[in-house]
Design brief:
By secondary structure, the protein is mostly beta strands. The chain contains 6 helices and 36 strands. The chain is globular.
């Protein structure tokens, strides 16, 4: 039986795949499912389901890592400092927002993208809104990564444990009484314990995350939750690349220690009143970073308090009204001390890179509200909306109109169109008088997107998306320079095709062609073309094998053409060439996944292995220079990495009852 799923959302956290719409032929063991886009109030979105997350090679069962394989997302070199960047449709990662249950979190990935900060089994849904999103999301000109944690109440206590090449962790969920549920998760990397000899890292990266929540649901129409979660990352490395230094230069090569961590306390609720829904949350986030070394220090601590309330109201059978308000208070304290600029610290500290010394603080308040009407008229849907935001520090107020529509041409095809304006205020550190520019204006991006979905023979889905963006006052930070505002543009074409025989086989292929520039020069994440191919097959009832291939043009970078000696500091200052006039080699990666499952009476075990292969010449992570910028070298990652993992789950329903 075949279904075109235009209005179906799947859940990541359930053990069994989410139930599709009722089928007439319940005896069909392997159902062909063509998953077109949901009938959501946006026209550009990607929603990840559990099967794709757990069985796509190269993700190592990490839902957020799979985001990097979606159309429109720049492919960054594996293992490189940019490996965890989410750059979507030409936008800089700083132009996007990462949300968990409506609250912005500081970062999505641990060190170099080895793992996300969100355990997959605690997620109910993960969405990527690449552009032209609705009025409920603001203060972003790039994309929205929106994660929703699970509320599925277990019938009995359950637990799972997972160990792999990167991390070891455990999760648990247990009901208490008729209305309470407790969830908890903790994970930590262990490569620092088993890895002792590394040419770059004097202390190998350590990263960890944790999540805890107490839920109260007195009835089916109300629920409350108190959540505590956070993440931390730490490593120590040589400032200069050891392989480019002689014995004396390496003897005076300083070591830096970099740390970052955040913690969140959140109270949230949902209430259903008839056909209307109310969602609200309030949260406090502490986020700190520190770069410490001989001759340099950069310590920043940010306090962020957020609150928002959203309502979805049914006015008529053919119209919903979505309205909401949100507010935010931010306070930043910073302490930066250095005697000169450090060009080697571009990833860790933009302020030490510039050679700035400053001590100070800054604070501001942000407020926003939106209204969006969602009309349905037969095969058409119209969603006009408007959003207003304000910033106390800059004194700016923005008003952004947005509109999208969908025409369901037939049972197997639909046309999508969206246009809108999107605004974003500079970060607090970019506006701070001591280190930034208080006169920086807010960024504006005017966006349009056109999409078409078509199912061929009710088996293959093909999606075509075309987009364009015009940006004004986009914030750009060149190496060693203060932030500045520039104009830019981006456009692209994305084609994606998917096929699935549920619980047996799925395959997808995508090709994207794009271009992004700032004032006539290539943007930092311009990637002219990308290709993604994925296949996964349950060739035995308890065996799975998968293959993924990714390829993309290398990212641009600014070359250093010479060095100038500074006698007063006995150091060299780089002479930069034309911005982003050089490009890394073409990136390619092949991932293979094999998994074996065992199911017992009340528990299950899965053993899985992956092989990551980056062909020679495609493993260049970045370019490095000697201390006097006379020599240039390519820092390369490993060609082959074999990975093994095991996952056990306890507290499952007794298999004898099935």
């Amino acid at each position: 039986m075949t279904h075109l799923l235009l209005g179906w959302s799947v859940a990541l956290a359930d053990d069994a795949p989410a139930e599709p719409p009722p089928a007439e032929n319940e005896g069909n063991q392997h159902e062909v499912v063509v998953e077109a886009r949901r009938d959501a109030p946006v026209v550009a979105e990607h929603t990840l389901d559990r099967e794709r997350v757990l069985l796509t090679p190269g993700t190592f069962e990490d839902a957020v890592r799979l985001v990097q394989s979606l159309p429109g997302v720049a492919l960054t070199p594996e293992y490189s400092p940019s490996a965890g960047d989410i750059a979507v449709r030409g936008a800089d990662p700083r132009e996007s927002r990462y949300l968990l249950d409506g609250i912005e979190i500081p970062y999505l990935y641990h060190f170099n993208g080895y793992s996300s900060v969100l355990p997959t089994r605690l997620l109910d849904e993960l969405q990527l809104l690449p552009s032209t999103f609705g009025a409920e999301n603001g203060n972003a000109t790039g994309a929205i990564v929106d994660a929703t944690s699970t509320w599925t109440r277990p019938e009995q206590p359950r637990a799972s444990a997972n160990v792999n090449f990167v991390m070891v962790g455990a999760e648990t969920a247990a009901p208490s009484g008729d209305a309470w549920t407790v969830r908890a998760s903790a994970r930590r990397s262990y490569l620092d314990v088993v890895t002792r000899d590394d040419p770059q890292y004097t202390a190998f990266p350590i990263f960890a995350d944790g999540f805890g929540r107490l839920e109260y649901a007195p009835n089916a129409n109300a629920r409350w939750a108190l959540s505590l979660f956070g993440a931390s990352d730490e490593y120590s490395r040589y400032v200069g690349e050891p392989q480019l230094l002689d014995a004396y230069e390496q003897s005076v090569n300083p070591t830096l220690t970099f740390k970052k961590q955040y913690g969140v306390a959140q109270l949230s609720h949902r209430h259903l009143i008839g056909a209307n829904r109310l969602d609200g949350t309030v949260a406090a986030t502490l986020y700190g970073t520190a770069t410490d070394m001989a001759g340099g220090l950069d310590r920043q601590d940010l306090l962020r308090v957020q609150a928002r309330e959203d309502a979805l109201l049914l006015l008529k059978p053919w119209v919903h009204l979505a309205v909401g308000v949100e507010g935010r208070y931010e306070s930043l304290a910073l302490d930066v001390q250095t005697e000169h600029a450090w060009p080697e610290l571009a990833r860790e500290s933009a302020l030490l890179l510039r050679g700035i010394s400053a001590t100070g603080s800054a604070e501001r308040g942000l407020a926003g509200g939106y209204a969006e009407a969602r009309f349905t008229a037969g095969d058409f849907r119209f969603v006009p909306g408007v959003r207003m935001d304000g910033d106390t520090l800059s004194g700016a107020i923005t008003v952004d109109p947005r509109f999208n529509t969908r025409w369901r041409i037939g049972p197997d095809e639909q046309l999508r169109l969206a246009v809108g304006q999107y605004s974003q205020f500079p970060d607090l550190v970019q506006l701070a008088p001591e280190v930034g520019d208080p006169t920086l204006p807010h960024s504006v991006s005017r966006q349009a997107a056109l999409g078409f979905d078509y199912a061929i023979a009710q088996r293959w889905e093909i999606a075509l998306d075309v987009y364009g963006k015009l940006g004004e006052n986009l914030i750009e930070t060149d190496a060693g320079a203060a932030p500045r505002s520039v104009d830019g543009e981006a456009w692209g074409v994305e084609v994606e095709s998917r096929y699935r025989l549920r619980q047996l086989f799925f395959a997808s292929a995508s090709v994207a062609v794009s271009h992004s520039e700032h004032e006539g020069q290539l943007a930092d994440y311009d990637q002219p073309w990308t290709v993604n191919l994925v296949g996964s097959w349950n060739f035995r009832p308890t065996w799975n094998a998968g293959l993924r291939y990714r390829a993309a043009a290398g990212l641009p970078y600014t070359p250093i053409v010479d060095g100038t000696y500074l006698a007063n500091t006995d150091s060299y200052e780089p002479v930069l060439g034309t911005a982003n006039s050089a490009r890394l080699p073409v990136f390619q990666k092949v991932d293979v996944h094999v998994q074996k499952d065992w199911r017992f009476r009340t528990w299950s075990l899965a053993l899985y292995g992956e092989l990551w292969f980056v062909p020679p010449g495609a493993n260049v992570m970045y370019t490095a220079w000697s201390y006097d910028y006379d020599l240039t070298g390519e820092v390369k990652g490993p060609l082959v990495i074999p990975l093994l993992g095991a996952r056990g789950e306890w507290g499952l329903p007794d298999s004898r009852s099935h």
